[in-house]
Amino acid sequence: MRILLIEDDPRIAETVRRGLAAEGISADTEADGVDGLWAATERTCYDAVVLDIMLPGMSGYKVLQGMREREVWTPVLMLTAKDGEYDEADAFDLGADDYLTKPFSFVVLGARLRALVRRGDTARPAVLTAGDLSLDPARRRVSRGPREIPLTPREYALLEFLMRRAGTVASKAEILDNVWDPEYGGDGNVVEVYIRYLRKKIDEPFGRGAVRTVRGAGYLLDPRGG
Q1: pLDDT tens-digit profile of 181-203?
Q2: Which residue ranges form the domains of the chain, and what is each CATH number?
Q3: Which DSSP string do the residues of 78-140 spell out, in sequence order?
């Protein structure tokens, strides 16, 4: 197995390279995001990419986003000292396949890489549509016709959940469980707040009403796009 390791700390990079070598995994290294993105997209020899988040030149998030925008589906494992749940969620939203925090075991890292390679490259997700409203999970892009609509990660996750259930009512509890977290203990009214945010971005500027409130039941997205 041959992987690309994108890590800016030379000592960590060399330690990881040696640790993987002991697991029978060959690793090429790049020390910044720009060179890492070039290597990940221009070389076709890698079975997987191990990618740090904090990189000079371009963050690991941008590297990952750039790979997926170029339709490079090589499995990516994010390797980072950042262990917040939102960092992990953002990595998966952008197309990461796995996530491992430092410090870590080389045995575990090797096992996870082998599991990713067994699964193979991720197939390009299908574009979700509702009338002229479209959501591309691979590129994380939302648009109305030719006009792209910028969304925050949480707004995007909410819209994707509603679009995957277009025409079906989703309760506030279901939205919290799927878009936030089953253990979320904050105010449930946050759903209403983000529904308003979505409407202001995907409906109101276009004179549409795709996101609908079903009184006493929850919310649904009109499969015709409003």
Answers
A1: 555 666 668 899 999 999 999 99
A2: 2-119 (3.40.50.2300), 128-221 (1.10.10.10)
A3: EEES---HHHHHHHHHTT-SEEEESS--HHHHHHHHHHHHHH-SPPPPPPEEETTEEEETTTT
